[in-house]
Design a protein that fits this description.
The chain has helices spanning 17-29, 40-50, 66-74, 90-98, 111-123, 159-170, 178-186, 194-208; strands at residues 9-13, 33-37, 54-58, 81-86, 103-107, 133-136, 139-142, 147-150, 153-155, 175-177, 218-221, 225-228, 233-234. It is an alpha/beta fold. The chain has two domains: 9-123, Rossmann fold (3-Layer(aba) Sandwich), CATH 3.40.50.2300; 128-234, Arc Repressor Mutant, subunit A (Orthogonal Bundle). It is globular, with a radius of gyration of 19 Å.
């Protein structure tokens, strides 16, 4: 199967023919090139041979669970992965995100939402924190000097608040599970202490959001974790 080298290439690992047809129609109309695989083993082989720009991975594959495919992939490749799950598979979504997936989409899904999530994944191929500064809304983060300003006025963030903000920016537009964040910032022993996280997310919202009752940037993924959403201006 040949693809246009000038287009971003998406690998779809999905055993349902109708879903693959829908994805091909949606992706190709949006200007992407698509490869496809029906099994986890074939999908891993495709990644190895063609190095796609992103992977759409179904959790229910005929030869092995999608979670196992993801774990194998993450041993050697950081390609962005969007997992597909059916309604009610919340535990599987969380397991997928903890195993290294970047985002998830529940079947049935709309083409517009699929493309929006895919664009967000592709934007993050270059890490945000590699830049010297990062702006979102009325906030500017100066990584070189560890300073945060809103409307030009310096804000006082604790070391943990700053670390959490930096983690969100690094993984912007990606769902981070409670477990991932707690493990990264507080260590493995804190993975069950979600009240720590709620407290610090609330503090960031109070300091950085315009409307605490309707947060724009620090969004809750109910029962799963948080997502930092923004159109960034990097310096």
């Amino acid at each position: 199967m040949s693809t246009d080298p000038t287009k971003p290439e998406i690998l779809v690992i999905e055993d349902e023919v109708q879903i693959r047809r829908l994805l091909r129609l949606t992706l190709e109309e949006a200007g992407y090139a698509m490869r496809e695989a029906e099994t986890g083993r074939a999908g891993l082989d495709e990644v190895l041979r063609h190095m796609p720009d992103a992977v759409i991975l179904d959790l229910g594959l005929p030869d092995q669970p999608g979670i196992e495919v993801l774990k194998q992939l993450r041993e050697w490749n950081p390609v962005p992965v969007l997992i597909l799950s059916v309604f009610g598979q919340e535990g599987s979504k969380i397991a997928g995100l903890d195993a290294g997936a970047d985002d998830y989409l529940t079947k049935p899904f709309g083409g517009g939402e699929l493309l929006a999530r895919l664009r967000a994944l592709l934007r993050r191929i270059k890490p945000a924190v590699a830049t010297s500064s990062f702006r979102f809304g009325r906030v500017e983060v100066d990584f070189a000097h560890r300073r945060v300003k809103k409307d030009g006025h310096a804000l006082k963030l604790t070391s943990m608040e700053y670390a959490l903000l930096q983690l969100f920016i690094t993984h912007r537009d990606k769902v981070l599970t409670h477990r991932q964040i707690l493990r990264d910032l507080w260590g493995a022993k804190a993975e069950g202490q979600t009240h720590y996280l709620r407290t610090y997310v609330l503090r960031l919202r109070r300091k950085l959001e315009d409307d605490l009752d309707a947060p724009k940037f620090f969004q809750t993924e109910s029962g799963i974790g948080y997502r930092f959403v923004c159109e960034a201006d990097e310096g």
